[in-house]
């Protein structure tokens, strides 16, 4: 025998249909939440890298304007989260030897200046390094 709905009664959704709809909605919202949180994490990481590059460029500019601080490693803490490590050494050419001076009368020598900016916890430590070569007179170590 077949049951028919009475003319005054409205049809609705069964409990099973409602549960399936909520399940689909929950899965879809979970996936969307993961996508957005992943995007936010990547945006924050990009911001951190941009700031680190800006700090490294600043440190190189400071060397250009104030001169070399001396051969060796110099550490500086910036903004409690970032540290910079400035390394100054005589430049060695690709073959590992110091390039010969083109004009021996000119008392300039090439120095390799590397700035590494480090941030993050020990487990997730990140860094950016910029290197350049400057010509200076004799620098003390």
Summarize the structure.
With 141 residues, the protein is of the alpha+beta class.
Provide an overview of this structure:
- The chain is of the alpha+beta class.
- It has one domain.
- Helices cover 37% and strands 27% of the residues.
- It is built from one helix and four strands, in the order H-E-E-E-E.
- It has a four-stranded antiparallel β-sheet, with helices on one face.
- It is rod-shaped, with a radius of gyration of 31 Å.
- The termini are far apart.
- The mean pLDDT is 84.
- SS field, number of helical segments: 1
Number of strands: 4
The overall number of domains is 1
Rg calc: 31 Å
Which regions have little confidence, pLDDT < 50, spanning 5+ residues?
none
Structural class: alpha+beta
What distance lies between the first and last C-alpha atoms, to the nearest angstrom?
101 Å
Give the proportion of residues in helices: 25-40%
**Biggest sheet details:** 4 strands, antiparallel
Layout of secondary structure:
Layout: H1 15-66, E1 72-78, E2 82-90, E3 109-119, E4 126-136
Antiparallel strand pairs: 1-2, 2-3, 3-4
List keywords for this structure.
single chain; alpha+beta; 141 residues
